[in-house]
Amino acid sequence: MERGAILGAVRAQKRSGVRRVASDAFFVTAGASVGLEIISLFRGRAKKFAKIAIGVALAGEAVAYAYDRIHKPTSEQLIAATYHNTQAVLDSATYGTDVILDPEQNPVRPGPSDTRFPYHAIKRGFDVAFSSAVVALGAVPMALMCAAISVDTPGAPIFFNDRVGRYGLPLRIFKLRTMIEDAEDLDKYLTEAQRHQWHAEHKVDGDPRVTSVGSFLRRTSLDEMPQFLNVLLGQMSVIGPRPVEPDELEAYGKSVTEFLSVTPGITGWWQVKARNNACYDGGRRQALELEYVRDRSLSRDAEIFVETFGAMFGKHKSGR
User: Fold this and answer.
1) Confidence of residue 313 (pLDDT cuts 50, 70, 90)
2) How many domains does the chain have?
């Protein structure tokens, strides 16, 4: 599809009654045929056409949005683009399916600190200062851990894991490898019961794929250290809900948009309060993550920061 055809599709979208808002990095298309046609074109080369209008979808329409990975939208632009009468717009490129707007879905509800500038300024300042210190002081220990991983089992010591970031944007996090190289071959290493647990919780009790070095890294949460680079890049915070994989979002039901309204973190309320003792099936993990989203504050962040060290070396171990 050439540029003219793209603009023609966008004009057709406008004629269908969809309101548009200017943006440098995002567009939202209402209607599955137009949306998916354009989004398929933009995969891998969204930079070529960065300035496409945003549309606010109408009730009952399937929605897709593409993005320019080079630019970062403001939260005001994205919320204006994706909410209309409490209808949530999700990224079909990320989730792999059309999302039908449901007027009953929960909209983003600003937390008690969202209207106070100092909270965000202090939180970001802490993120940058603490992460810079960890990266600087942890460079040598990180190199030693990478060497130990490489000696223990073949494969790269650091790997990239695709998660869902704030507002549903794709997020690639850095982690130290704690499993064998071909760990994605579930049939090869897991029993039927273990595969069921993996699909339900994205974790397995006594996972045979975890290496000896990886077991230590998981117990101490040292496998998460590379994510301080994600924090410095502004993709994550030190404290926040844990970033999930796309297929985990279903567990949040109508609260998924609320969950995605907060920058994900390296550590959070779920990890210090329950970690492996809270699962999706029982709903406790979702409840803890959403409790933080709704009640986040500097005092709660400080509590999480202090309790994280107890969780690292105490009873709550081996999270993801």
Assistant:
1) low
2) 2
- HEC per residue, the chain: CCHHHHHHHHHHHHHCCCEEECCCCEEEEECHHHHHHHHHHHCCCHHHHCCCCEEECCCCCEEEEEECCCCCCCHHHHHHHHEECCEECCCHHHHCCCEECCCCCCCCCCCCCCCCHHHHHHHHHHHHHHHHHHHHHCHHHHHHHHHHHHHHCCCCCEEEEEEECHHHCEEEEEEECCECCCCCCHHHHCCHHHHHHHHHHCCCCCCCCECHHHHHHHHHCHHHCCHHHHHHCCCCEEECCCCECHHHHHHHHHHHHHHCCCCCEEECHHHHHCHHHCCCCCCHHHHHHHHHHHHCCHHHHHHHHHHHHHHHHCCCCCCC
User: 90 and 125, same structural domain?
Assistant: no
241 plus 289 within the same structural domain = yes
State the residue range of the domain holding 13. Answer: 3-100
Does the model's pTM come out above 0.85? no
